[in-house]
């Protein structure tokens, strides 16, 4: 397939911009003069590639103003002056960084990409920030890569793109404009005469469910203890004997002490505490610590938290054996302490903390926080400088701190608790975690995806704005397929009629949103056995679909709980089509 010339591609780009995005078309600079190109070549001591000279003779880059046409993530095309300025700047940084002897270009192992910035590279776009910190470069170095286009980013190594030349870049750019297809992973759209690039995502309609895979796998049976080895029987033998001497190996390091995160709740039973924590029906079972650890590490758990619960006098308690930490979350403390009081003992490395919550309110004045002192530091003789002792546990005092806080619980709250032995069985369950609170940002809504949402909110009556974004929410639910869940469909119907949606704890909609969050979390975590091996049941498309559904569910929850402008920002952010602006315009007219 022949690639159009630079001039042909620019003619197509010019025509499309003039017809569809006149504001952006007006930002194209006139052609560069031959004198300017030759002066730049002398200044940089580089012969510009013919493709670059042809492009500059069509347009000398763009005016760096609002509405300037850009090459998606790669930014606006550089003018001759921009090329000189950026190249000199990057050469200066490269000279400071490349302190080693340069590779011999005649060596068969020579790698043009090995340096920070090659002297014959020219930065031909100005990247996302319209600066020399990233963008596309063109190699004018004579050799195998002459004329190739690469990607430069100041926090990563340079690399060559799939484009073999600038001709390929401009041809693909013209195709994307004319066909509405992707360029550099983004889709072209027009708003108010300006060319914009937006993300468009396809969503698998029926992704494989990690929780369904977990249920099908089933919980592994606990490993029975190994039977003791029978004692060796002495044998009598005549003649010479071969004697084996067992050499004692160094002892393996002792396992860390059992110091689980624990929550105590006054006046309720262990079963009720599990319910408040979000126990998954069908997973409640008496388990030892070893059984819980084995089950939590299996496919069956799907990375959900696993806790075991018991009683200590008038208090129920739960210890977390695996999964993302729960007991320090304010959402969890609010639930478990409703109508009573709860005390949590949490440990993170050397830090041990006790927190008190009463009827859903955390009592900061009752907080106990202990940071164990480091014990691997010694003062160097004759100096004030500390040094570390090799092989020393830096925080052995954390065990003592944990024990001290257990004693404080007994003194202050009458809680007598000692972490159980390995063989003790406690009622246990996997949890369906409660959702995070939606934070109040306190910041005014401004721009979302290059859209001035603040201006729209300011000029649109509240009822009309709500109706338009209720329609946007329905579109989001349809394109992410969460409207296939009955609980979501019912909520959308109420929203469409302008009615309030009840979102009660442990209600049908709450459980659905929490389940979507659990699906997304399980899909994204590394698993054993891996779900991402060749032929695995869960593909990357499945993983993406669950996270997109989780995001759409978050937008629905925001619409129910937060003011419409804040929810509108979430909805716009989650829309998977690049053409949501046109659809929003339709919804504003029809609302």
Provide an overview of this structure.
This protein has 591 residues and is an alpha+beta fold. 37% of the residues lie in helices and 15% in strands. The protein has 18 helices and 19 strands. The strands form 5 sheets. Strands 7, 8, 9, 10, 11, 12, 13, 14 and 17 form a 9-stranded antiparallel β-sheet that branches. The chain has a 4-stranded antiparallel β-sheet with strand order 1-2-3-4.
Question: In brief, what are we looking at here?
Answer:
The chain has 591 residues and is an alpha+beta fold. The chain has 18 helices and 19 strands.
Topology:
Blueprint: H1 6-20, H2 22-25, H3 34-44, H4 50-58, H5 80-97, E1 121-123, E2 134-139, E3 149-153, E4 159-160, H6 166-179, E5 187-191, E6 194-198, H7 210-217, E7 262-266, H8 270-277, E8 285-287, H9 289-296, E9 306-312, E10 315-322, H10 330-336, E11 341-348, E12 351-358, E13 361-362, E14 368-371, E15 377-379, E16 386-388, H11 397-413, E17 426-430, E18 447-448, E19 451-452, H12 453-459, H13 462-480, H14 486-496, H15 508-524, H16 540-561, H17 564-574, H18 580-590
Antiparallel strand pairs: 1-2, 2-3, 3-4, 5-6, 7-10, 7-11, 8-17, 9-10, 9-17, 11-12, 12-13, 12-14, 15-16, 18-19
Helix pairs in contact: 1-6, 3-5, 13-14, 13-16, 13-17, 13-18, 15-16, 16-17
């Amino acid at each position: 397939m022949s690639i159009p010339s630079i001039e042909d591609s620019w003619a197509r780009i010019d025509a499309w911009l003039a017809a569809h995005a006149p504001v952006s078309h007006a930002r194209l600079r006139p052609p560069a003069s031959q004198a300017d190109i030759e002066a730049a070549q002398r200044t940089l001591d580089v012969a510009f590639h013919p493709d670059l000279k042809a492009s500059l003779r069509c347009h000398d880059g763009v005016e760096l103003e609002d509405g300037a046409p850009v090459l998606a993530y790669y930014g606006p095309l550089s003018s001759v002056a921009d090329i000189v300025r950026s190249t000199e700047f990057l050469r200066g940084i490269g000279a400071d960084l490349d302190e080693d002897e340069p590779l011999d270009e005649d060596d068969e192992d020579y790698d043009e990409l090995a340096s920070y910035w090659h002297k014959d590279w020219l930065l031909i776009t100005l990247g996302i920030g319209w600066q020399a910190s990233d963008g596309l470069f063109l190699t004018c170095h004579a050799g195998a890569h002459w004329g190739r286009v690469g990607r430069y980013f100041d926090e990563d190594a340079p690399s060559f793109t799939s484009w073999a030349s600038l001709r390929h870049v401009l041809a693909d750019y013209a195709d994307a404009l004319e066909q509405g297809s992707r360029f550099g992973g983004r889709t072209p759209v027009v708003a108010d005469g300006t060319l914009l690039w937006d993300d468009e995502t396809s969503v698998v309609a029926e992704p494989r469910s990690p929780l369904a895979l977990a249920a099908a796998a089933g919980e592994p049976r606990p490993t029975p203890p190994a039977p003791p080895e029978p004692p060796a029987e002495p044998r009598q033998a005549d003649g010479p004997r071969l004697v084996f001497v067992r050499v004692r190996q160094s002892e393996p390091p002792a396992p860390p002490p059992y110091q689980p995160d624990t929550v105590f709740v006054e006046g309720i039973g262990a079963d009720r505490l599990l319910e408040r924590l979000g126990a998954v029906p069908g997973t409640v079972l008496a388990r030892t610590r070893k059984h819980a650890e084995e089950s939590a590490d299996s496919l069956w758990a799907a990375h959900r938290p696993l806790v075991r619960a018991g009683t200590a006098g008038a208090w129920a308690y739960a210890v977390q054996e695996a999964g993302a930490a729960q007991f320090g979350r304010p959402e969890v403390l609010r639930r478990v302490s409703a109508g009573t009081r709860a005390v949590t003992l949490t440990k993170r490395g050397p830090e041990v903390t006790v927190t008190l919550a009463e009827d859903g309110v955390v009592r900061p004045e009752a907080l106990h926080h202990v940071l164990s002192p480091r014990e691997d530091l010694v003062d160097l003789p004759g100096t004030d400088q500390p040094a570390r002792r090799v092989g020393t546990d830096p925080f052995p005092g954390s065990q003592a701190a944990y024990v001290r806080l257990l004693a404080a619980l007994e003194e202050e709250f009458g809680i007598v608790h000692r972490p159980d032995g390995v063989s003790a069985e406690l009622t246990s369950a996997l949890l369906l975690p409660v959702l995070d609170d939606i934070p109040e940002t306190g910041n005014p809504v401004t721009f979302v995806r290059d859209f001035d949402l603040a201006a729209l909110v300011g000029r649109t009556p509240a009822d009309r704005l709500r109706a338009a974004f209720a329609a946007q929410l329905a579109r989001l639910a349809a394109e992410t397929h969460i409207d296939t869940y009955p609980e979501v469909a019912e909520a959308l119907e109420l929203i469409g009629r302008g009615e309030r949606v009840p979102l009660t704890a442990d209600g049908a909609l709450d459980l659905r949103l929490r389940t979507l969050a659990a699906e997304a979390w399980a899909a994204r975590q590394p698993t054993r056995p891996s779900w991402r091996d060749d032929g695995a049941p869960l593909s990357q498309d499945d993983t993406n679909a669950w996270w997109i559904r989780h995001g759409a569910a978050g937008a629905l929850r925001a619409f129910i709980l937060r003011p419409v402008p804040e929810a509108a920002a979430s909805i716009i952010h989650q829309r998977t089509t690049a053409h949501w602006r046109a659809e929003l315009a339709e919804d504003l007219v029809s609302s």
